[in-house]
Amino acid sequence: MSVPLYQAKAEMFRTLGHPVRIRVLELLQAGPRPVRDLLSEIDVEPSNLSQQLAVLRRTGVVVSFRDGSLVMYALSTPDVADLLAAGRRILSAVLTDRDGLLAELRAHSPSE
Amino acid sequence: MSVPLYQAKAEMFRTLGHPVRIRVLELLQAGPRPVRDLLSEIDVEPSNLSQQLAVLRRTGVVVSFRDGSLVMYALSTPDVADLLAAGRRILSAVLTDRDGLLAELRAHSPSE
DNA sequence: CCGGGACTTGAAGAATTCTGCAATTCGCCA
DNA sequence: TGGCGAATTGCAGAATTCTTCAAGTCCCGG
């Protein structure tokens, strides 16, 4: 497998590695939305949101088009939902493990 | 949904956003491996690999344990494979779209 | 044609992340 | 016990990414 491919995969994941961008993608799962709506649901400055949207566009995870005076954004492929779902599962698995370990640590004596 | 949760999700994805770390995870899909093996398959300095492994450990995506004089690494949950698979699907969807667009651009006259 | 809302772009400084070198730890075995 | 291979840690400088502010574009209504 070529090195540039790993680069591309990494870039794909790095694109999701930001709270605002994650939130945007989750909102877009419900369908296309204008920037104006995203802005009202995410606590961030307009220019910052635009920057984050640009990152998502650059990678090709979302697409945008104009509808009258509004700019709409949409997921470029429904596969994005799978990615988010897989992320949630891992997060929950990891947190469960952590809690499990914590519980175990508390249940036994230090010398055990 | 709380803001810290988005932070946690973002951190999870950011963890995967590095070529070496992606490669490590793909290798670990086949089962636990010692650092020594990873090192022989990935072109990176030992200290760099260690740093990247530390990042993966911190997030809880992988776990490590000692086996004699070797340190072994393993995926903490098989769900990681799903994430990588979803990433691949999106990448291929995005690239296909791009190629599709390119082909379309080439097939029509500039003024069309 | 002008005003104003809806977004985007450019750019700079702050904050993070990456990389590689040197030094260190840990366990094994002669 | 001393030497070694295996890995990790501590850092410093380089490279990226984030955030914000100021300025600019586009489009609709008047």
TrEMBL record, chains A, B:
It comes from the Bacteria. SMART domains: HTH_ARSR. The keyword DNA damage does not apply. CDD domains: HTH_ARSR. InterPro entries: ArsR-like_HTH (IPR011991), HTH_ArsR_DNA-bd_dom (IPR001845), Metal_resp_trans_reg (IPR051011), WH-like_DNA-bd_sf (IPR036388), WH_DNA-bd_sf (IPR036390). It holds the Pfam family HTH_20. Keywords: DNA-binding, Transcription, Transcription regulation. The keyword DNA-binding applies. Residues 1-95 form the HTH arsR-type domain. Gene3D superfamilies: Winged helix-like DNA-binding domain superfamily/Winged helix DNA-binding domain (1.10.10.10). PROSITE patterns: HTH_ARSR_2. This is Metalloregulator ArsR/SmtB family transcription factor. It comes from Paractinoplanes aksuensis. The lineage of its organism: Bacteria, Bacillati, Actinomycetota, Actinomycetes, Micromonosporales.
